[in-house]
Amino acid sequence: MAGFDQATALRAASTASAGAAYDSAFEADLDPQWSIGGKLHGGYLLAVLGRAACLAADNPDHPHPVAASAHFLRAPAPGEAQVVAEMLRSGRTVAQVRTTLLSDGQRCVEGLVTVGTFHGEPWWDGVPAVELPPIEACPRLPVEGPGFEVPLMGPVAEHLDPAVMGWAVGRPSGHGELRGWVDFDDDRAPDPLSLLMLVDALPPATFDLGVSGWVPTLELTCHVRAVPAPGPLAVRQRVRHIAGGRVDEECDVWDSTGRLVATGHQLAGLRIPDGRAPAIRR
Fold it and tell me: Does CATH place domain 4-116 in 2.40.160.210?
């Protein structure tokens, strides 16, 4: 089972092979273990783009992704892929890089990544911290999912709060929130790059609304706040809005010291079952 670093590893390649004038080009081996229901995980792909951006920037003053967003055009196949990067700007405090992931010669994911560094403590924080039971009191999610396999639950250890597990036995709470502890199975310490994946690691919070099934990501954004301390991360994912066959979710991540280290925002497709009455919460 490949760990995060191996699964996101890149090899330098010739920019001529990309068929366009890019600043950097890389080869990747997309790992099928980092998938859900036969599709490579969106956060995993965002992390691959984030690694490419950091390598393309190649600047010790800009070692980490601080913001990254990706638009998913089509699902890439596991296996060989190519990532190309274009340096848009390199400034004193940050650099911006455009990245593209190609599989079988087709553009699959387009990303924009800002890389930089982190300084100091938070000046103000208006995000209420999540409250969780101890990790040993939270069941770990298995690879065998609700009607399909979730291989991602092998390398990523997710322990959900029992209070939000009603959906697993047909009794969702209707609050549209999931929360729990997330860590790597191999005990790899979290870092800013891995946060690009971890903001998308929990199951869709729509499960807590009684809406299961495939929730394909259309766009995913991650804002990284700090270098996380070692140890499991506390994660809370909430549905913000559902309309027109799309769902807007927000995910906050705290490190083992209780510091907010990342926030994810996602727009995804969602199919509401026929006959399901709408519910509007204020």
Answer: yes
Task: For CATH 2.40.160.210, list the domain ranges present in the chain.
Answer: 4-116, 135-269
Overall fold of domain 135-269: Porin (2.40.160)
Query: What is the structure's pLDDT at 139?
Result: 96
Distance CA 99, CA 65 (A): 13
Look up residue 31 and give its DSSP letter.
-
| Coil vs helix vs strand at 213 | coil
Q: Report CA dihedral (45, 46, 48, 49) to the nearest 10 degrees.
A: 130
Please report the pLDDT score of residue 148 as a whole number: 79
Mean pLDDT within 209-237: 95
| Whether residue 16 has pLDDT greater than 80 | no
pLDDT at 125: 94
Beta strands per DSSP E along the chain: 10-13, 24-30, 35-36, 39-40, 64-72, 79-90, 95-103, 106-116, 156-160, 177-184, 217-224, 233-243, 246-254, 260-269
CB burial readout 84-101, b (16+ within 10 A) else e = bbbbeebeeebbbbbbbb
- What pLDDT, on a 0 to 100 scale, did the predictor assign at position 147? 74
Neighbouring residues of 135: CB distance < 8 A, sequence distance ≥ 6: 159, 181, 232
